[in-house]
């Protein structure tokens, strides 16, 4: 089955509000667009389905908008990283401590008791089980406290900086473990790793405010390009901005307040991006500057015979469309890094897969410099 995410079905009370808000925005957008039955079904299944788990992977009730903007990417290897989780998960790991995070003081490895849900519906039960786990010592309100993986991490306040484990810290923790405990960890099963799979990579972290506003930016991109051709799309944008402002006002106590470079506290919310961005900009791929509905760079699609692939077997589910050059993928105009939070509404856009692959985790500007040199070297300009 593979590694999952610790307590993946658990949402704290505020996260339930976030998911409810996203669902209300999707429902409002569907009503505004007045889509015919088949187009509505396509929009919801591909983009607009809202899942109620931390994992929210394909097939678990979440569409592309939620997976791209609210969740981290999958991490299936044998380690304590979540195999998808919310981007605002307040426990991250980084090479060095980012300026926007607080350090974890100590890592322990010990036996703990956890509650595991078994069954579904009326047959669902909670069982207490003893497991081996990584436990994190953090400082909060001038006191040290132990945080167990899963729910205890997820219930940390979202208006404060997340806690971070550095590579050196984890290496030091490992070096000081008994050989017997090292061997125990090396032999963890997928379930053991799932119980511990709570943290996320620091470069994928984003404040919940940035994550939702990125979701709204990408929603307007998809709605205006693929599903709506009327110039009144500006009315949809105005309504979404109004609803987002109201949600922020109602949940002001949860807005992250972080010290800036001048040691002054700032609310981490970027309303100006959503309200000032033009719909026309959102309809274009950031790299090739052609409509998302067009083939990349406005080229004619290359005509060549198809090759056989393993997905051709009748029992396989084909993901061919996701791999096509013109399929729509999430781009970061500047690549994700640990020292800055870059999954933000001003840095997130939808673009063509071909363009996304061409950027190869480089910035948009660096990619353009690269292509300029390639063209010059080939006497094409």
Q: What does the model show?
A:
With 381 residues, the chain is an alpha/beta fold. Helices cover 36% and strands 16% of the residues. It is built from 13 helices and eleven strands. It has helices spanning 13-33, 37-48, 64-70, 151-154, 167-175, 179-186, 190-196, 208-227, 233-250, 271-276, 279-282, 353-359, 364-377, and strands spanning 91-94, 102-103, 106-118, 125-140, 143-147, 163-166, 200-201, 257-259, 265-267, 328-332, 348-352. The strands form four sheets. Strands 2-6-1-7 form a four-stranded parallel β-sheet. Strands 3-4-5 form a three-stranded antiparallel β-sheet, covered by helices on one side. Strands 8-9 form a two-stranded antiparallel ribbon. The radius of gyration is 22 Å and the shape is globular. The termini are far apart. The model has no long low-confidence stretch (mean pLDDT 91).
Attribute tags:
single chain, 381 residues, alpha/beta, four-stranded parallel β-sheet, three-stranded antiparallel β-sheet, 36% helix, 16% strand, globular
Summary, kept brief:
With about 375 residues, the protein is α/β, with parallel strands linked by helices.
Helix content: 25-40%
The low-pLDDT segments are none
Overall structural class, as computed from helix and strand content, comes to alpha/beta
Ends distance: 52 Å
Helix and strand sequence = HHHEEEEEHEHHHEHHEEHHEEHH
Q: Give the mean pLDDT.
A: 91
What proportion of the residues form beta strands (DSSP E)?
15-25%
C-alpha-based Rg, rounded: 22 Å
Strand arrangement, major sheet: 2-6-1-7
Provide a count of the helices. Answer: 13
Shape: globular
Number of strands: 11
Q: What about the largest sheet? A: 4 strands, parallel
């Amino acid at each position: 089955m593979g590694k999952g995410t610790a307590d993946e079905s658990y949402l704290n009370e505020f996260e339930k509000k976030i998911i409810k808000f996203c669902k209300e925005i999707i429902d409002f957008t569907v009503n505004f667009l007045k889509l015919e039955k088949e187009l509505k079904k396509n929009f919801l299944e591909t983009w607009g389905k809202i899942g109620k788990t931390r994992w929210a992977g394909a097939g678990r009730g979440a569409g592309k908008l939620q997976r791209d903007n609210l969740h981290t990417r999958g991490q299936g290897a044998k380690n304590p990283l979540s195999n998808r989780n919310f981007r605002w998960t307040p426990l991250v790991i980084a090479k060095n401590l980012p300026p926007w995070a607080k350090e974890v003081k100590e890592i322990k490895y010990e036996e703990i008791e956890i509650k595991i849900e078994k069954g579904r519906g009326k047959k669902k039960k909670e069982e207490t089980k003893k497991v081996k786990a990584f436990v994190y010592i953090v400082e909060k309100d001038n006191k040290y406290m132990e945080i167990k993986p899963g729910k205890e991490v997820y219930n940390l306040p979202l208006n404060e900086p997340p806690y971070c484990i550095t590579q050196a810290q984890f290496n030091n923790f490992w070096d000081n473990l008994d050989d017997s405990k090292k061997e125990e960890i090396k032999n963890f099963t997928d379930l053991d790793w799932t119980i511990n799979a709570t943290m996320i990579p620091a470069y994928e972290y984003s404040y919940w405010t940035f994550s939702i506003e990125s979701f709204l930016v990408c929603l307007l991109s998809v709605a205006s390009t693929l599903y709506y051709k009327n110039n009144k799309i500006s009315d949809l944008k105005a309504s979404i901005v109004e609803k987002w402002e109201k949600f922020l006002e109602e949940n002001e106590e949860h807005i992250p307040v972080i010290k800036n470079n001048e040691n002054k506290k700032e609310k981490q919310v970027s309303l100006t991006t959503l309200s000032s961005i033009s719909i026309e900009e959102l309809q274009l791929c950031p790299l090739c500057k052609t409509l998302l509905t067009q083939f990349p760079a406005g080229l004619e699609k290359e005509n060549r015979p198809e090759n056989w692939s393993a997905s051709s077997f009748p029992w396989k589910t084909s993901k061919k469309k996701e791999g096509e050059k013109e399929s729509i993928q999430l781009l970061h105009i500047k690549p994700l890094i640990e020292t800055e939070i870059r999954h933000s509404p001003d840095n997130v856009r939808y673009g063509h897969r071909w363009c996304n692959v061409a950027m190869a985790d480089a910035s948009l500007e660096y990619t353009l410099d690269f292509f300029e040199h390639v063209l010059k070297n080939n006497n094409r300009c």
